[in-house]
Amino acid sequence: MLKVPSGACILNARRSGTVIPAFNIPYLPMMQPVVAALRDADSFGFIAVARLEWIKFESRSMRAVFEEYQRTKDERFTRLHLDHVPVIDEDDIRVDFEAVIEEALRTGYDSVMVDGSRLTLEENIRATKAIVEIAHRTGTPVEGELGAVLGHESGPLPLYEELYSTGRGFTDPDQAKRFAGETGVDWLSVAVGNVHGAISAVSRRKEKVEARLNIPRLRRIRQMTAVPLVLHGGTGIRKEYLKDAFQSGIAKINIATAIRQPYEENIAKSVAVAQQAVYDSALRLLTEELDLRGSRRTINPEFS
User: Fold this and answer.
1) Whole-structure pTM over 0.90, yes or no?
2) Domains and CATH numbers, the chain
3) More confident call, 240 vs 38
4) 292: helix, coil or strand?
């Protein structure tokens, strides 16, 4: 049976008003329990790794993540996604983003993300378009980002209420229309109140802020673009906002803090205990918070 491409899975999620969770893997032993949780919930999800997770955590390398995925994958329930590859990273360092993404394509990742959100609109369009042209030669879908999903930067996050009330970094719907049209991007990560979990050593274990979403803005972005939308920073958003978001264009949601912190809190006991904590958290997210039990039958129906 042919493997359903990641792009088709995302489109199936959007059409059905459901969502694909993408679980970030900053520590390689986290992957097996996440795959097990997806299987046990009969849910479909992405295994994801961002550049910062092999730079600032312990996923080691893009190749190491790929090899671990080959050992643990179950393609009835999973695909492998390269998450944030920034043009300018959280430390304001210029990244050779094209080389990183080209390596992912050669390695065999199912989808890739270029993050030009720290650039001007024009620069972001140019960088994203360049990656789209490269990736589409192999039929690989590309995720871009417009707006600033804050949280990964050095230093403390500004007060959340100030961020939300001012709309700082929120995606502009008119710019989204131009961005999607000029880049040819397959999926678009948007900022509508969502924030990343902090990654600095002093703050990564702190409880994440409870975010809310500007659903009217999200619906306007959906109206202005024809691409599936992505919500980064999915941990900590109240369930009612998530349900509205899934009906308003969000077809992929990134999960990191909710599974990373249980691993870090338990790894001193043993790898097995930490893995069980990841499994428990992932299963609870899938079945209780996101209501995704059985989503595989809609998103990847060829295996039903």
Assistant:
1) yes
2) 6-303 (3.20.20.70)
3) 38
4) coil
